[in-house]
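DM from R.C. (forwarded with permission)

"hey, sorry to bug you on a friday — could you get me a structure for this? deadline for the figure draft is monday and I only need the backbone to look sensible"
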Amino acid sequence: MIKAVTLAGKESQYPAEVNCVFDLNPAPVTNIVLSQSSADKSVLNISWTGILESDLAYYDVRVGSSWDDATQIVTTKENSCTYTLSASGTVKILVKSMNVAEYYSEEATASLYCTIEPAKVSNFRVYQNGEYVEFYWDKSVEADVVSYEIREGSSFSIGSLVVTGQTTTNYKYLVDTERKYQYHIKAINKSGFYSSSAISGSVLVSDLSTRNVIESFDELTLQSGTHANTAFGTSQYKFSNLGGKFSDYTTIKYSEIGGANVLKLAMNGAVYYSSGVYTGERIDIGQIITANITAYFVSTVLFASGTSAALEYRTSQDGSTFTEWQDFKAVQATFRYLEFRAILATTDTTKTPEVNHFTISVDVPDTDLSLTATVAAGGTTINYGQTFYMIPVVTPTAIGENLYAQVIAKTKSSVTIKVKDSSSNDVGGMVDLRVKGY
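My reply, with the result:
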């Protein structure tokens, strides 16, 4: 209200009145837009339409169910920002304007259901190709998928690692045992998240070629290792208590179920331990060799859900420095010492995984060499250029008419040859050598 006042101090009879309302709070933002980045699904893009008021200090952006309980993402004068998602689910974004007088606007909100895991892999195929199992699958359509991981076993979560970080859409690896293999694959995106569910495929491996086995260790017979919550004992499984009909197990051999002697988790009172490790005795081949390491390792995990049995190995050339423990797969390595261990686990302590076959084998590949050498009169010792594990078969052929080659002596690394004429005179000459062995 306003009145006029004279010099004599007299006021107007009636005051003039005016009414107004002052709002110190800034206007709220509008048009909040949320979207996941196609280049990285863990990145949430947030944008909004800002206000035009000159006393804007910043925008306060938060994530949560309510303003007071929400976590601040950023304060900014820009009209956009990003937020890194840590899990799939509904995300609620809250934004308020703040002016220089430190007054907040009303909050503006937007919500979006976000999935940070890549979609499951499609069209996964598994084939046997000779001594290899080959895998093929379709490339993920999501731009942030960077690699794939394959595991073998009853499920992805408890399976043995076959390969991880695979960037192409095919892979193959050597197998050593004739049995049914169950494989599972997941995609991995840029943020390290795996597909929520795996795609599975199986193959029955058969007709593997024979191998030059130089050492073989049947751990169920030797029982020379160290137990940590594991034990040898009689199997709890028989075909009579597996359930179903014989026709349900068309790919299972009698020898792969049950048995009088299996490796399993030890008892902890009335139940089994939840996990255990059996470490085999160190194997010394006696010399540094390049050889294939294979295993016949068969367990019941495909028939007992919630159980797992994994085989790991490591090698050394000097007995002191070993490679890291790694999931076993048929491999060729240069080594002298070999160690292995079986890791058993169960999520239901009334059940235990059982290992029915546990044999580690070392075999060396066939080598077929072709050499040409000059043999002096009196004979010459020719080196193969490598040392065989066993004395190889050497077939010499003299080059020229009326000549023949004769093996005088041979070892794992060399052969002594003479070249004679048709009258058996030692004349020397050129020979072709075929050296075959392992």
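R.C.: lifesaver. The chain has four domains: 30-114, 125-204, 213-363, 367-437.
me: no worries. Residues 12 and 396 are 137 Å apart (CA to CA).
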